[in-house]
Amino acid sequence: MARRFGTDRFQFEVVEGWPKQEIQGVAACIACDSRGRAYVGVRNIPAGGGFGSILPGEGRVVVLNPDGSLHGDWDFKFSSPHGVWVNDQDEVFVADTGLHTITRHAPSGEVLLTLGTPGEPGAAGKPFNMPTAAVQAPDGDIFVSDGYGQNWIHRFSAKGELVLSWGGGDPVFIQKFRGGPVTGVTATEAGRFNLPHDVYVSPDGIVFVMDRENLRWQAFDVDGEYVAQVNGVNRPCDVAVDREGIFHIVGGGGVEIWTRAGQKLGAWGEKGLEPGQFKFGPHGCWIDGDDSLYIGEVGGNEGLQTPASTILFFVCLTRRAHACEGPRSIHDRRESSLCSPAR
Fold this sequence. Notes:
Blueprint: E1 4-7, E2 10-14, E3 26-32, E4 38-43, E5 59-64, E6 70-73, E7 81-86, E8 92-96, E9 101-105, E10 111-115, E11 131-136, E12 142-146, E13 152-156, E14 162-167, H1 172-177, E15 196-201, E16 206-211, E17 216-221, E18 226-231, E19 236-241, E20 247-251, E21 254-258, E22 264-268, E23 281-287, E24 293-298, E25 311-316
Antiparallel strand pairs: 1-2, 2-25, 3-4, 4-5, 5-6, 7-8, 8-9, 9-10, 11-12, 12-13, 13-14, 15-16, 16-17, 17-18, 19-20, 20-21, 21-22, 23-24, 24-25
């Protein structure tokens, strides 16, 4: 029997053997379209061995079918894919920390829009210096967390015109990561950041920024005006929002579950090598139309010298009455037995 994970009414069952295709490299991020295809941002194995990182290298996007089999790779050369996000039109946004770009793609991989100059970091406070994520607001505007090389949020029109930027803060994290001298000062004030690692725009136009190294998220209106913050979040890397509007945040705490008002509902996640356990560190996540959860991991250590990436797929078990109405969208392959109450 497949293992179950979760807390309280948020229960998931790991799908063993998904994906069917072994992916060589680090699966840093994952998102799904309306047809159930998963787009996985992969950092290739460096020529000298080891694991791909946020620094310039080579990367690609791998597309998986709903059953986890390989659909194909895009014919586009990335450097270090960091964040993948899919809009309602099945357009795919990729943030690349190595190229300093945000690209918008058709499902085929065709490039529809490029923001930033490939291979060239922007000036201080300008797009981009190792951006971490890009999403769209309900009105089509694009929001980018410009995260490692600087600490800014940028808002663009749907056509790619820069509207405004806000935030700031010395790039202390990347200075430490590179092993050089730390010359900056950590920004902890409201409205400033210490590694904005992900961004989410709610249907009512609130911009939530995962301020990872400050162990918090901050909320703003679409014009960058500060609204609120929630502290005590364990190194939030990525947030996926279910149909109830509940935040499922992956990061240093495994998976933490929060209301957007800041009430922590629980946390789950185990370190280990068994199915459903985290071998490395959960980094990217996505929740599909059935509230099933996908997680990509990054990292590695001397005891786990493996070229294969780790992607975890958890089917959401019953925590709402309508979950047993039958398959609705992109995961019709699920067995009806998965609608039995979690035990």
